[in-house]
């Protein structure tokens, strides 16, 4: 069975839901700890949401130096699928696995709401099970969710089709070009500000629109 590691940092909040999403997608969730020096032989890694190290300095700025991140960076370089959700996205940017940065929401308050997204790139390890242009709704909850980058960085992301998802409706945090998620050039590393792991069952929340991220990874590993 495919094994997907979910890293817990001090202050992680959504690691339990991420493991649950992995299980509902049909894989075996493996709990990994920030101080681990190996990935335990997993096939893919999720960096979950939360408040790693209390969001001190900047969100993700300290987690980036956790021992396990050396292993995550090395595995991502070998093509392992890595998904960073919200605080995980912040950690991926701080680790330079993804370009740009997440800064304080433009309205300066924490936002928590169900959020419409358009999936723009279905050629990544985490979005294969969606169709291009598909609109989904998943929860969004962050204080530092504004995606920014140097003009040439943003232009390169757009030119190379590396924007994975965009916000629909009013922009919730000031992200440039309504960017909600991006991928690296190889398509194995994806960062997403909204939370698909909270939308994996029809009985809860806005529905099961988020499950596709987790089933996509399984298909990528089998393909
Ligand atoms: N839900 C989250 O992962 C929040 C991330 C981070 N703590 C922020 O407020 O932006």
From TrEMBL:
Its main location: cytoplasm. Keywords: ATP-binding, Cytoplasm, Glutamine amidotransferase, Hydrolase, Ligase, Nucleotide-binding, Purine biosynthesis. It catalyses: L-glutamine + H2O = L-glutamate + NH4(+); N(2)-formyl-N(1)-(5-phospho-beta-D-ribosyl)glycinamide + L-glutamine + ATP + H2O = 2-formamido-N(1)-(5-O-phospho-beta-D-ribosyl)acetamidine + L-glutamate + ADP + phosphate + H(+). InterPro entries: Class_I_gatase-like, PRibForGlyAmidine_synth_PurQ. Pfam families: GATase_5. Pathway: Purine metabolism; IMP biosynthesis via de novo pathway; 5-amino-1-(5-phospho-D-ribosyl)imidazole from N(2)-formyl-N(1)-(5-phospho-D-ribosyl)glycinamide: step 1/2. Part of the FGAM synthase complex composed of 1 PurL, 1 PurQ and 2 PurS subunits. NCBIfam families: FGAM_synth_I, PRK03619.1. This is Phosphoribosylformylglycinamidine synthase subunit PurQ. The gene is purQ.
């Amino acid at each position: 069975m495919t094994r997907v590691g979910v890293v817990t940092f001090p202050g992680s909040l959504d690691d339990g839901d991420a493991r649950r999403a992995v299980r509902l997608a049909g894989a075996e969730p493996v709990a990994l700890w920030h101080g681990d020096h190996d990935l335990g032989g997993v096939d893919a890694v999720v960096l979950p949401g939360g408040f790693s190290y209390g969001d001190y300095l900047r969100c993700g700025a300290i987690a980036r130096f956790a021992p396990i991140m050396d292993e995550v960076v090395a595995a991502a370089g070998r093509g392992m699928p890595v998904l960073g959700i919200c605080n995980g996205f912040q950690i991926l940017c701080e680790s330079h696995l993804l370009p740009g940065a997440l800064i304080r929401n433009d309205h300066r308050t924490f936002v928590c709401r169900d959020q419409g997204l358009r999936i723009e790139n279905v050629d990544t390890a985490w979005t294969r099970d969606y169709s291009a242009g598909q609109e989904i709704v998943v929860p969004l909850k962050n204080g530092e969710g504004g995606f920014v980058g140097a003009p040439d960085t943003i232009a390169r992301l757009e030119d190379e089709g590396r924007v994975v998802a965009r916000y629909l409706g009013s922009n919730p945090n000031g992200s440039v070009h309504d960017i909600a998620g991006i991928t690296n050039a190889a398509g194995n590393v994806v960062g997403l500000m909204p939370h698909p792991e909270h939308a994996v069952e029809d009985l809860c929340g806005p529905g099961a629109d988020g499950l596709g991220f987790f089933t996509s990874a399984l298909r990528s590993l089998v393909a």
